Amino acid sequence: MADEPLVLGIETSCDETGVGIVRGHTLLADAVASSVDEHARFGGVVPEVASRAHLEAMVPTIQRALKEAGLAASDLDGIAVTAGPGLAGALLVGVSAAKAYAYALGKPLYGVNHLASHICVDQLEHGALPEPTMALLVSGGHSSLLLAPDITSDVRTLGSTIDDAAGEAFDKVARVLGLGFPGGPVVDKRAREGDPQAIRFPRGLTGSRDPLYDFSFSGLKTAVARWVEERRREGVEVPVADVAASFQEAVTDVLTRKAIRACRDNGVDHLMIGGGVAANSRLRSMAQERCADAGIELRVPRPKLCTDNGAMVAALGAEMVARNVAPSSLDLPADSSLPVTEPHIPGTGADAGHVHR
Amino acid sequence: MLLLAFDTATPAVTAAVHDGTTVLAESTSIDARRHGELLMPAVDHVLREAGVRLDAVTGIVVGVGPGPYTGLRVGLVTAAAFGDALGIPVHGVCTLDGLAYAAGVAGLGGPFVVATDARRKEVYWARYDGPRTRATGPAVDRPGDIAAEVAGLPVVGAGAALYPEVFADVRPPADQSAGALAALAAAKLADGEEFLPPLPLYLRRPDAQVPAAYKAVLPK
Ligand SMILES: [Zn+2]
After folding, report:
1. Interval B104-128 mean pLDDT
2. Nearest neighbour of A51 by CB, restricted to B35, B69, B216
3. A104 touches chain B (CB under 8 A)
4. Where is each Gcp-like domain found (chain B) (predicted)?
């Protein structure tokens, strides 16, 4: 429908400079410039390297997205940007760019929450989100179970990791196994040749007295390292594929078990999975099986929409426009620890929603 | 000619509108931690005060540093975005040159030094033969290491007052002014001089600790 809001979204919370354009629930462009290769030799994302790369990539990535969508910037109905959470210096590049485009083009600005965006992106894949939506967000930065009665205004945390994010555990295990960075894709790949039942690694926080929806991956990571070191110390060859598969099985077992429990307990018949780890093939297949058994409809966007991207920000921005949410103001801050309970940063003063040209 | 100038390379968040002859409006606030929040309201403010529309602006002037990176990037990405959205040129000017030009307006002839705070016990600095003639720099150094090079010279910029043992003859101004930056740019445009590309002068490599090789969890 041509009258659905046309929104450009900017995402710079970590190492991907993402610019997406959507019309309502339709994806028109998804341009990404990644600095991941520059971080690989450090074994993790270096904030200053990421921020420098965002500055270089910002305008070219916006131009690429507009070209991909076949649009002029003046056609847009609004500009959305990740205001947090994320790396402070990285966020600030995107927020500053979004303000400048919004101001120069005379368009409303929407500072939105990165986590809520990860959920909302599924509207581009599977249409309008059910309300409430149950979401499992898993990436290098987050592992949360979220319940969203209204993605633009009401997102609640049911549980989250008490130590490492799931994606971090993948990175660390990849490092233990000497597989490089980032760990997610390479562990997934090696695990396909391995036996997921070969080693019984611990399932964190699954005891009868543990918190129902919280996660812990630190103990698992240490258990994997210990197991591998013991083999090496004995001079036994480490079965890399079996370790990868067994580790991955432990992670996905806990994630899916808790997510389905959360759906049941809250009477929700849908489960959305997002974040970079949602690209993991075993998580997708296990979630599919278990959701089918439990009568829960599973919604997982295609992998490119699960990792950080601008389209997800645009998707949430478009929802803000569609629901007449007030725009952010020109003094919109980048908030590195923005809580998920704030899907949007509303305007603060007289200039909210008012653009002077 | 109608220039919109701003600079976020120092603790000053400063914006100004200049018509080629005079500064029509200027706004400067000093807050090293809130560049991102303060810049766009300042731009909005000076445009309103000057009574001009952003789409009437013919060029963006931006201080390209050197300066601490997080704040510096706010000005540069804003300039790049304005340039792209409005289809107008973005003129990069060394931040220290803006301070030197302002020092000239305040009566300093030359030679002199401009020094701003680079944190970590260092300054960003340059030597000038005159308000529009940079002789050396910009560079980033510990004040003690450049004492001989700056000895006896007047120094402007907020970096000077931090190290009185090295910079004895402190002169105004202390803080960057977008009005001065715009006036310098207008003079350069009138004289057909070149600008810097609107890219950051970081002068330092990013801090990036290469983590030690994998740490064992088993006791040795
Ligand atoms: Zn993310």
Report:
1. 96
2. B69
3. yes
4. 32-147
Looking at the fold, whether B20 and B82 belong to one and the same domain comes out as yes
Q: Report CA A209 to chain centroid distance, whole Å.
A: 29
Say if residue B31 is in the same domain as residue B64.
yes
- In angstroms, rounded to a whole number, what is the distance separating the alpha carbons of residues A272 and A94? 27
CA closest to B218 among chain A residues? A226
10 Å CB burial of residue B22 (0-12, 13-18, 19+) is: exposed
Beta-bridge mates of residue A242 = none
For residues A190-229, one letter each, b for 16 or more C-beta atoms within 10 angstroms of the residue's C-beta and e for the rest, the string is bbeebebeebebebbbeeeeeeebbbbbbbbbbbbbebbb
pLDDT in tens, B144-184: 999 999 999 999 999 999 999 999 999 999 999 999 999 99
Task: Return the SS3 of A223.
Answer: helix
Chain segment B89-109, per-residue pLDDT in tens: 999 999 999 999 999 999 999
Task: Give A356 or B154, the one with higher predicted confidence.
Answer: B154
Residues A130 and A123: their CA atoms lie apart, in Å, by 10
Considering only alpha carbons, which residue of chain B is nearest residue A225?
A: B217
Interface contact A92, partner B, CB < 8 A = yes
Residue A354 has pLDDT above 50, yes or no: no
Average per-residue pLDDT in chain A? Answer: 94
Q: What pTM was computed for the model?
A: 0.94
Say which DSSP state B170 is in: B
Nearest Cα to Cα of residue B35 among A95, A13, A351: A95
pLDDT at A142: 83
Q: CA B143 to CA B167: how far, in whole Å?
A: 8
3-state secondary structure of A294: helix
* Number of other residues whose CB lies within 10 A of the CB of residue B177: 22
Residue-range domains of chain A with CATH: 6-121+309-345 (3.30.420.40), 130-303 (3.30.420.40)
Question: Within 13 Å and on the Cβ side, how many CA atoms surround A176?
Answer: 30
Shared domain for B85 and B186, answered yes or no, is: yes
Range of the domain at B62: 3-95+176-190
A48 reaches B (C-beta below 8 A): yes
Q: What is the DSSP-derived secondary structure letter of residue A162?
A: S
Least trusted range by pLDDT, from A334-348, B45-59, B88-102, B184-198: A334-348
Tens-place pLDDT, residues A234-287: 999 999 999 999 999 999 999 999 999 999 999 999 999 999 999 999 999 999
A118 a known binding residue?
yes
ipTM of the complex: 0.95
Q: Report the domain count for chain B.
A: 2
